[in-house]
């Protein structure tokens, strides 16, 4: 077997494109499954008579496991490799996609919360994909690689656009069966066609000490905060935007889903751009631009721009800035995290990003002004947090962070 020291860039190039495409596809399909509840949030609200808070909790619940679960998944990826972990995680997600359909047909809010919680398993594939593609690329192209892989978060756009339409075309239960079958087929494809990088070696130390070691890295927590803002903002809007558009602009389920898909697509396009720009001008610069832009656009949205052009443009530009940030931050991680710790660091940082998307929908639901049909308080809070991230990016991370000693 080829050792890590014997691997050349030429050896890596033989499998880079194929494995990057497979990882991107697996990530996109699993993210579609992860986001199955949110595009139908308006439907569930009407059928179950949910309050704004209940609706927010329902939409946000899958995000929780998809966030926290990334911590052990990242460490397990260091141990077992991306090929195994992608396959296992997608197959584990299948029953919960189907059980969500069972709960929806039963119109049971309690079961929806329970099965939606475990549906979050599908969202943990992010912590597998980053170390998987990172090991396939030379350091000078890791921003590009992680950015392209990260575009798989466009699975949320696919879900926002197609899930309501699939329900209309094929029926509610059949839609969930289709996604379950797609997960099984993708798992089979990854298992048969994907391959771990020849530079990757399975970690031999136990998972818990690996996580402790990753937690001692200063870069882990610095990037965790920034990613919580950038990716958290993306997830929050991707899951809550259908509800926002229904409450503020009175769009129906399909119309809100289409516009949410446009938001997600803009962020997806911007993510690899953020990674590529980070390779050229530095991740710090790109991240700072991202947070400054997000601050401005969140404040613009508090004015409730009129539909269709101005409101749509505001959200698309906001998505572009958030997408740039997500690409830049993981280019930063790939540059500074020790190679043997990339999976563990990715798990913690990815968890922070997911958790960053868990709380905003709850805040939006709690602060919604039903009389004025506005979310002003929530948007102002987003602008404040983005401004803090901007200042921290410029002045809080001054040097390459070394591993902390015990």
UniProtKB/TrEMBL annotation:
GO terms for molecular function: nitrate transmembrane transporter activity. Keywords: Membrane, Nitrate assimilation, Transmembrane, Transmembrane helix. The chain crosses the membrane at residues 20-37, 84-103, 109-137, 144-163, 169-191, 224-244, 281-300, 312-333, 345-363, 375-395. GO terms for cellular component: plasma membrane. GO terms for biological process: nitrate assimilation. It is found in: Cell membrane. Its main location: membrane. SUPFAM superfamilies: MFS general substrate transporter. InterPro entries: MFS (IPR011701), MFS_dom (IPR020846), MFS_trans_sf (IPR036259), NO3_transporter (IPR044772). Residues 19-401 form the Major facilitator superfamily (MFS) profile domain. The keyword Transmembrane applies. Pfam families: MFS_1 (PF07690). It is a multi-pass membrane protein. PANTHER family: HIGH-AFFINITY NITRATE TRANSPORTER 2.3 (PTHR23515). Belongs to the major facilitator superfamily. Nitrate/nitrite porter (TC 2.A.1.8) family. This is Putative nitrate/nitrite transporter.
């Amino acid at each position: 077997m080829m050792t890590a020291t014997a691997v050349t860039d030429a050896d890596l190039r033989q499998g880079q494109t194929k494995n990057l495409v497979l990882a991107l596809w697996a990530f996109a399909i699993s993210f579609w499954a992860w986001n199955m509840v949110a595009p139908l949030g308006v439907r569930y609200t009407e059928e179950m008579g949910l309050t704004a808070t209940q609706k927010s909790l329902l939409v946000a619940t899958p995000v929780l496991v998809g966030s926290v679960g990334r911590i052990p998944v990242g460490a397990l990826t260091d141990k077992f490799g991306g090929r195994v972990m992608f396959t296992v995680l997608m197959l584990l997600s299948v029953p919960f996609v189907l059980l969500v359909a069972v709960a929806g047909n039963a119109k049971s809010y309690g079961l929806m919360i329970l099965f939606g919680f475990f549906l979050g398993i599908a969202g943990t594939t992010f912590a597998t994909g980053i170390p998987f593609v990172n090991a396939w690329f030379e350091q000078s192209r890791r921003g590009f690689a992680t950015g392209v892989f990260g575009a798989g978060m466009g699975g949320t756009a696919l879900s926002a656009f197609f899930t309501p339409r699939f329900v209309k075309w094929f029926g509610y239960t059949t839609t969930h069966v289709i996604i379950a079958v797609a997960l099984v087929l993708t798992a089979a494809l990854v298992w048969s066609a994907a391959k771990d990088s020849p530079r990757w070696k399975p970690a031999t130390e136990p998972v818990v000490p690996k996580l402790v070691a990753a937690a001692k890295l200063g870069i882990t927590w610095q990037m965790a905060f920034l990613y919580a803002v950038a990716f958290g903002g993306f997830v929050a809007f991707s899951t809550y935007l259908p509800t926002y558009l229904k409450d503020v602009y009175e769009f129906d389920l399909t119309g809100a889903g289409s516009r949410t898909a446009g938001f997600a697509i803009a962020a997806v396009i911007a993510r690899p751009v953020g990674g590529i720009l980070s390779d050229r001008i530095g991740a710090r610069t790109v991240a700072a631009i991202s947070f400054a832009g997000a601050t401005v656009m969140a404040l613009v949205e508090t004015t409730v721009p009129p539909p269709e052009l101005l409101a749509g443009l505001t959200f698309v530009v906001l998505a572009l800035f958030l997408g740039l940030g997500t690409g830049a931050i993981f280019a930063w991680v790939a540059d500074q995290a020790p190679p043997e710790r990339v999976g563990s660091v990715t798990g913690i940082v990815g968890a922070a990003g997911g958790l960053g998307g868990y709380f905003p929908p709850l805040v939006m639901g709690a602060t919604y002004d039903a009389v004025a049909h506005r979310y002003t308080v929530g948007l102002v809070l987003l602008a404040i947090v983005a401004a803090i991230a901007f200042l921290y990016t410029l002045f809080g991370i001054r040097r390459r962070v070394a591993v902390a000693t015990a």
